[in-house]
């Protein structure tokens, strides 16, 4: 394209070509500034979005600079100008041609980076889902930087193939060395595009961890529990876990209050009293309306479940506490019994007589029977008498 533009000035002298190129450049720059951009601003001013205003304001500088410096580069390519200057064409390109293109590349890179950063900031200010959206700004800045450096090296005739090979090897090494960090980064990106949760949502993980999302970063997500404890969860773990978002699609949440009343209770009167208690609680929403449901016949009570809605998952415990207190007081005032399991232990007479007979049998087996024959060897006194009787005949035999 540039040689074809330079061919337009083949019949011109050096001065004529210079004047013509400079005039075209100035007219193009002024036209961009006062015609094209002004019309574009007038058009985008009629829209409600601020994004188009950001894009138009970011394009002003690169358009004007491109219109001006493109003429300088074209001027260095005109044969009449290249032949009339006192320097060599190569030096002319090195001093005017390539520097003008380099400035154009840098201006466009800066404008593209600024536009994206401002767009991301505008999205965040309008209630972005994550506060790690600036990460995309950083990634975009890195991409623009790499692209700009590669383009400049190409413009100046520097071979970039070895650099690309080295960058690939370095990328593989970094990927293996920081695989957890890379996994967390891409896990955060996946959570962002899946719209799993946003800042301020109350989420519950499959391991029981629950809290309000207060920060989502590149590596991890921070939760604030009801005990005001910060829990940091890696994004890779969140991406692989089952996440229950209790703040979506609406913040209101239903609570269930189980209660049992005694058999024989007037169920109509109890249900009316329960509805009065639910309606009097300020934490309970009027719509959807509270309900009382008779669930089952229990062992000791008629099992009911009171259903109502509160504005937000963090208010469920407080509302359940207030409803339990109010129900206990109201049922007590209305003489409606809240039964609880009772066990009666009874000791019968048969069991007592059985224990008495076993005790008497044990005592009788331990006392001796007077009518049973006695063992002389077992009785010490009998044993002594027997020994005396055995010795007496011997002593009489020795008497003359």
Description:
α2 packs antiparallel against α3 (51-77), α5 (89-125) runs antiparallel to α6 (134-155) and α10 crosses α11. The chain has 13 helices and eight strands. Helix content is 59%, strand content 12%. Strands 4-3-2-1-5 form a five-stranded antiparallel beta sheet. A three-stranded antiparallel beta sheet has the order 6-8-7, with helices on one face. It has helices at residues 2-7, 14-44, 51-77, 79-84, 89-125, 134-155, 161-177, 179-194, 235-240, 267-280, 316-333, 349-366, 380-397; strands at 202-205, 210-216, 220-224, 230-234, 243-245, 253-261, 291-297, 302-310. It has 400 residues and is of the alpha+beta class. The model is unreliable at 369-373 and 376-400 (pLDDT under 50).
Which range best describes the helical content: under 10%, 10-25%, 25-40%, 40-55%, 55-70% or over 70%? 55-70%
Q: How many individual β-strands?
A: 8
What strand order characterises the main sheet?
A: 4-3-2-1-5
| Computed structural class | alpha+beta
Mean pLDDT: 78
What gap, in angstroms, lies between the N and C termini? 170 Å
Oligomeric form? single chain
